[in-house]
Design a protein that fits this description.
50% helix, 5-stranded parallel beta sheet
């Protein structure tokens, strides 16, 4: 079976060096450092080796072949040039996108990519997205977390989504590191350790909830009434949102929200989800019922997640052959125009 995984991460040594040099500008540094220490101490297992992030043509392809993965959609997530000050983010994003495109050119049958944008400068992000799609053949962009604590439904970011809709490419709303204020209010407690706080606020729960709220806010902002061609990707089975589709519909009303449709209608029409390495059949079956195979794709979150299930899990899934093919590759092929 052909398998395309859509949340697989990449960077370059140069981008890593810039980010490390200017890491004081990144949000929530104390929590991020604690998170790294906890990962290295074994709470989440070892952090991926730098080579796993930068090596596209050797180690990664060997891994893909072993796991039955036909193609990866590559992106920079988490700590990316997006988080740097605008004057640094603009050249760093361009350099990273060009490096990604050069790697893809060597194996276009195995990789496509999503652009990194310097979102602290929305106008520059519009230009970078157009350049990345038209000149580099990247197939969309990935946004990683909030922008200095600002959510992407705010009007200043609308031109970025407008350009994505014009180009007919998706935007991936990926988790990022919550701000210190958010972390302290929601996850800090005297009843457990700082290590628990750092993990709880990031991959255990917090950054997934925040990424889901990004999507909820976008829908209620009315962006899909203004941009009916806009497509959004949401990882980790939709970052909690599919479980609340009925609840949100029951509590809200289009007359009160000013929207033309119910929340769940926008979600099912514009949002595409994938497991991001959370391989659980109950989640697969639940989300297949909630959003349908036409809006589901596959993803492993490489190299942060490496399993022996990426290809085998979907191939052995207890669902119809038609749904299996859509989730494994057909939805991605349609969305990314493969």
């Amino acid at each position: 079976m052909k398998v395309i995984t859509v949340e697989e991460h990449f960077t370059t040594p140069e981008a890593m060096a810039v980010i490390q040099k200017y890491n004081a500008s990144l949000p929530n540094q104390a929590e991020f450092k604690q998170y790294q220490q906890d990962m290295n101490a074994g709470m989440l297992g070892a952090t991926p080796a730098p080579g796993s992030m930068t090596d596209v043509l050797d180690e990664r392809i060997r891994y893909m072949d072993e796991q039955g993965i036909t193609m990866q959609v590559l992106s920079a997530a988490g700590i990316t040039p997006q988080l740097l000050p605008a004057e640094l983010a603009i050249p760093a994003a361009r350099e990273l996108n060009e490096a990604l495109a050069k790697n893809i050119e060597q194996k276009p049958d195995r990789f496509i990519g999503l652009a990194t944008l310097p979102l602290k400068d929305p106008a520059a992000s519009v230009e970078e997205l157009e350049y990345a799609v038209k000149e580099l053949d990247l197939r969309g962009a990935l946004i990683s977390g909030t922008i200095d604590g600002r959510f992407v439904d705010e009007p200043e970011f609308f031109p970025v989504f407008e350009k994505a809709a014009e180009l007919d490419v998706p935007i991936y709303i990926h988790p990022g590191y919550p701000t210190k204020t958010e972390t302290d209010v929601l996850y800090k407690s005297d009843s457990y350790s700082a290590a628990v706080k750092s993990i709880l606020s990031t991959p255990a729960f917090g950054w997934h909830m925040e990424a889901g709220i990004q999507v909820v806010r976008l829908i209620f902002s009315g962006i899909f009434d203004r941009l009916p061609n806009l497509k959004i990707i949401s990882g980790h089975w939709g970052e909690f949102v599919p479980t609340f589709l009925n609840r949100i519909d029951d509590i809200t009303d289009p007359v009160e929200t000013g929207l033309k449709k119910r929340f769940s209608e926008y979600y099912r029409e514009h949002i595409y989800i994938n497991p991001s390495g959370i391989f659980e059949y109950d989640q697969l079956l639940f989300n297949l019922n909630r959003v349908g195979a036409d809006h589901m794709m596959w993803g492993e979150d490489y190299p942060f997640v490496k399993t022996d299930q990426a290809g085998r899990f979907i191939e052995n899934a207890p669902i119809s052959p038609e749904s299996k093919e859509k989730i494994a590759h057909e939805t991605a092929e349609k969305l990314f125009k493969l």
